[in-house]
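Ticket #4471: complex job returned nothing on first submit. Input attached below:
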Amino acid sequence: MDPFSSSSSSLSSGASGSSGPSAEAMMDQLKAQLAQAYAEEFLETVRSKCFEKCITKPGTSLSGSESSCISRCVERYIEATGIIGRALFSSPR
Amino acid sequence: MEKSEELQQFLEQEKQKAMISEMVGKLTNVCWDKCITGTPGSKFSSGETSCLTNCAQRYMDMSIIIMKRFQSMQ
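Support reply: We reran it on our side without changes. The output follows.
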């Protein structure tokens, strides 16, 4: 059974039933929702950072150099996230 | 009962993950502005890399100092 498509109905029916909602299904659903929330927030940040860096004077269309700046910017931002994570959690301080 | 404990532990873990992810996200945001001053290249310079590392670690140092400062005010 697909835990996502059936989750809302199983939650409501589970609450009135004797067994309650499956903890497993709830955890899976929460995990998926959190993952989506993280991804959305990250994307929004990358958009604003790279717009700031690469689209300094918006023209009538996106230029080739702007596009390549954007792809470099996205790659670097992801790399920077890794560097910060390592700096905080895996280097001797 | 056993299930709610399991759920409790799961939520605690996710809370931790959320805090870590928020911290990393926030510091990347702040340190990116401080350290990446030019247009992003195809590779970070060593200066940019060490700036990012230092930026994150100094931010943590600062947080500790501020926390201590506030604790001593109580």
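The CA atoms of residues 8 and 18 of chain B lie 15 Å apart. Closing as resolved unless it happens again.
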